[in-house]
Design a protein that fits this description.
By secondary structure, the protein is an alpha/beta fold. The chain folds into 2 domains: about 160 residues, Rossmann fold; about 70 residues, no CATH class. The protein contains 11 helices and 10 strands. The protein is globular, with a radius of gyration of 19 Å. The two termini are about 30 Å apart. The protein binds adenosine-5'-triphosphate and magnesium ion. The site of adenosine-5'-triphosphate (ATP) has 11 residues, from helix 1. The site of adenosine-5'-triphosphate has 11 residues, from helix 1.
Length: about 260
C-alpha cells in the first residue's frame, strides 16, 4: 500500500525552482534513499512533505488523504515525523526531556486541566514519559541508560539518536531522516544504520525516506534510491541501477561509483 505520494510537486524561491515537478511515492515498510549534489533540493523536498514550506504547485497525499498545504504540526499529527540536517537539541535538557518534546503536539491537557485536574495531567505526562522510555530502550539501550544525562554531555552519535527517538515517539507512519550520519565516522555510521534497521523491525508498516551522501550507507539500508539534480528527479531504482545510470554518474557520482 502506498503511504506517501507526491504529484508534480514544485517550489519556487524568488525565481529559482528548488524543487520542480517531482513525482515520488513510498510504500509501507520501504526505506527509500534520496541522493543528489549539494543544493539539488533534497532537504527542500522534505520541507514540503513535512509542511515547513508550502508547495508552489503539486499535491502531497498521505495514505489517500490530500495533505498539501497543511501546517507542520497538523502533518506531524497525521503521521509524518522528521529529523533535521543540523542538530536541533536543547543542550541543557536531559536526553529524556529532549525526546519528550516530540510529544508536544499530542498533549491533550490544557492550562485549565493543569490547575483543576492535576492528576489527569500527571497521568498524561506519565504516559508520555513511558512512551519515550519505550522508544529509547528499543532504539538504543545504551542511550536509554543515559536518559537523565544532559544532551550536551553525550557523544555526537547519541545526539543524532535523540533526534530520531524524538521523531519516533509520535509513532509515525513515515519517518524523514535528513543526513542522520552527518559528522559520524565510518564505524559510527554503520552502528547508526543498524539502529535504523531496528526501527523497521519494531514498527509495523513504517516507511523511511533517508537523505545521505555516503553511497555505502545507501547500499546497505535502502530498497530504492531516488536521485535529484537541480530540483528534479533524474533517476530512480535499486542501488545497482542508479550507480550504473549515466545521468547519475555525470550529475552526482562523478565517475567513482561507490
Ligand atoms: N528558504 C529558502 N529560500 C531561498 N532559497 C532556498 C531556501 N531553501 C532552500 N533554498 C535553495 O533551494 C536549493 C535547494 O536547497 P536544499 O537545501 O534543498 O538542497 P540539498 O539538496 O538539501 O543540499 P545539501 O546536500 O547541501 O543539504 C538551494 O539552491 C537553496 O539555496
Ligand atoms: Mg540538505
Amino acid at each position: 500500500m502506498t503511504t506517501l505520494d507526491t504529484r508534480k510537486v514544485s517550489i519556487n524561491f524568488g525565481g529559482l525552482w528548488a524543487v520542480k515537478d517531482v513525482d515520488f511515492s513510498i510504500n509501507a515498510r520501504e526505506i527509500v534513499g534520496l541522493i543528489g549534489p549539494n543544493g539539488s533540493g533534497k532537504t527542500t523536498f522534505l520541507n514540503i512533505i513535512s509542511g515547513i514550506y508550502p508547495a508552489t504547485n503539486g499535491t502531497v497525499t498521505l495514505q489517500g488523504e490530500n495533505i498539501t498545504g497543511l501546517r507542520p504540526f497538523e502533518i506531524f499529527k497525521k503521521g509524518i515525523a522528521r529529523t533535521y540536517q543540523s542538530s536541533r537539541l536543547c543542550w541543557d535538557l536531559s536526553v529524556a526531556d529532549n525526546v519528550l518534546m516530540g510529544l508536544y503536539t499530542k498533549q491533550k491537557a490544557s492550562f485549565l486541566d493543569i490547575l483543576i485536574h492535576p492528576q489527569k495531567t500527571n497521568n498524561e505526562i506519565y504516559e508520555c514519559l513511558q512512551e519515550c522510555m519505550d522508544v529509547l530502550s528499543y532504539f538504543n539501550p545504551a542511550l536509554f541508560n543515559r536518559r537523565y544525562d544532559l544532551a550536551r554531555d553525550i557523544p555526537h552519535i547519541d545526539r543524532r539518536r535523540i533526534e530520531i527517538s524524538r521523531a519516533l515517539v509520535g509513532r509515525p507512519t513515515l519517518l524523514l531522516l535528513d543526513e542522520p550520519t552527518a559528522g559520524l565516522n565510518d564505524e559510527e555510521t554503520m552502528r547508526m544504520m543498524d539502529d535504523i534497521h531496528k526501527i523497521k523491525e519494531k514498527i509495523k508498516d513504517i516507511c523511511i525516506i533517508i537523505i545521505e551522501h555516503d553511497m555505502k550507507v545507501m547500499e546497505r539500508v535502502t530498497e530504492r534510491i531516488v536521485v535529484f539534480n537541480a530540483g528534479q528527479k533524474i533517476a530512480e531504482g535499486t542501488y545497482r541501477e542508479v550507480i550504473s545510470d549515466a545521468n547519475v554518474v555525470k550529475a552526482y557520482l562523478g565517475g567513482s561509483t561507490v
